[in-house]
């Protein structure tokens, strides 16, 4: 039972996914399209990876933050939950908008999530599952009630479009879930997180960070593009996907025969098949949609989750495992008992209310940017009466929080 403050005591707290959403750019790039730019062919790509097409953010206005925001809005809509009541936003990404500020903060601003803390999580393709594990721990420990976990990428901006080893693999997109505290048993049962940094050089963007800051030379030699030893990553991936799945099932006290659905990171159909072979799962229990999206890195698992739900592949009390691997090297798995609350009656006016709230969030953000400029030009270090009045006005606006 929730206490008078609406919080559940720790021993009765469970972390459930209550909303989900995804977003992809408009432009579809097929394998045939890629034949025009690198020495490859549809047959090779399909047989070696399973990928037939991917979505690419060709419009420069479409970014990791805009995709992440759209996915988060969709997740909030499913849960019928206002952005202003979100406590924390975790954005997993390897293609952040900037080194800083965090992409999560830009999404927080766009949503008008004025009560939320926000940070980015860097664990490459495993990052979304890291985020689920973290959000679940915060919720069960009583540190948070409503957490948005987002996986968002525009890796097409980091891909060397003349390198056929990598450019055929990746796609852009975002997926998000809202995780909420509940007294209903289930939700996240167990998690496994792993890393082996000795394999960091197998999949990396060498330049542009503090180790090798961007220079004319690093740019000319393409060091700010993705470099990958595909075969080594392949071997690592098949091993850790199997091990992490086995471990997370053990931690959750579940046998492989009790599994209802596995959502693996959508990198390569051969990796998925070979890593899942040991569990003797029928094909319909392993969700695959990489043929349509390519490898969207950390967004691949939440996008697949959205499609699995849309295809009715998850039912109440089903046991779900999500498992991923990626640069770092990293890996992560989580076992979930799917127990989403019954669909609520959402009043018809809610969509209008929601878009008005997002419109207000945009206005608020513009006003705060503008006011900072005004404040900067009017308020002197010594302070004066007029400056104080302006500062106080601005501060009162800053504290306006939508209910
Ligand atoms: O989220 C994590 C991201 N990374 C991954 O998941 C990568 C994991 N690795 C893989 O998925 C696979 O290793 C690849 C799909 C990247 C490559 O498949 P592969 O079966 O391991 O191919 P390979 O690198 O062993 O190359 C086989 C042949 C080579 O030709 P030769 O030396 O045998 O004549 C390559 O040059 O295929 C050639 N090749 C291509 N041919 C046509 C490599 N890329 C291409 C291409 N089109 N795009």
Task: Let me know the number of strands.
Answer: 13
Task: Label the structural class.
Answer: alpha/beta
Our measurement of the CA-to-CA distance between the termini, rounded to an integer number of angstroms, reads: 25 Å
Strand % is 15-25%
**Oligomeric composition of the shown chains:** single chain
Q: Whole-number average pLDDT?
A: 93
Task: Pick out the low-confidence regions.
Answer: none
CATH superfamily assignment of the largest domain? Answer: Thiolase/Chalcone synthase
CATH topology of the largest domain: Peroxisomal Thiolase, Chain A, domain 1
Rough outline: globular
State the major sheet: 5 strands, mixed
In CATH, the architecture of the largest domain is: 3-Layer(aba) Sandwich
Trace the largest sheet across and list its strands: 1-7-6-4-5
Order of helices and strands: EEHHEHEHEHEHEEEHEHEHHHEEHH
Count of domains: 2
